[in-house]
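Standup notes
- DV: blocked on the single-chain target, sequence here:
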Amino acid sequence: MKLLSFNVNGVRAAAGKTLIEDLHRLDCDVVGLQETKATPEQVKEALTDLKGYHIYAFSAEKKGYSGTAILSKTEPLSVVMGIGIPEHDNEGRAITAEYEDFYYVTTYVPNSSSGLKRIDYRTKEWDVAFLAYLKKLEEKKPVVVCGDLNVAHQAIDLKNPKSNYNKTPGYTQAEIDGMTTMIEAGFVDTFRTLYPDTVKYSWWSYRGGARAKNVGWRLDYFMVSSGFMGRVQDSQILNDVMGSDHCPVMLILD
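- DV (later): unblocked, structure below
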């Protein structure tokens, strides 16, 4: 079974590039998209040429902002939009699809924003509420959570750790601690566990030719309940897939 996660930075723009062809080629069973920047109707319209998937989309109240979607070859047992807290769910940041033996959650974690003006919201409110939501799901069955988690957890996860530490959104101690808390709560960073010393990134700024120079950050993850790690065959970062400032990440299960 193959699962994918991809911050497309606007599904309509990505669909106008190579998104449809890439999804057909990768042929994953479940796909999570983040930062769709579109209403559910617009997501479905953008993906008209994508064959063989049920499409579920959740949008922010603010137009052209945030948004998530799940594309599934089989119909999930259930699909839930959001995490059940209105003040978080008005930005369309999470969708859960339930399958026979696990929950698949895709999320677009809030960026702390320039000047770190949203860092308190992100670390003290969102991170806490989202982890509580995942732990509640885990009472019923294992959880696979994927998406743009908007944090580089360790120095190996970004090209320039020293110059960005506590200055740039995604690499502050508060955000790092939030990810550490998630791991301590029983969620495994699949890629870093399988590849402890591998330098690979999933996001590059559009400025300064960052992608060509591989000046990037690893912001996109597949995390799984610790008891589910035995099902994981591989966790991959697909650097060769273009069309966004992020690249997709893939989880392969037995």
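- Follow-up: Residues 119-138 form the longest helix (20 residues).
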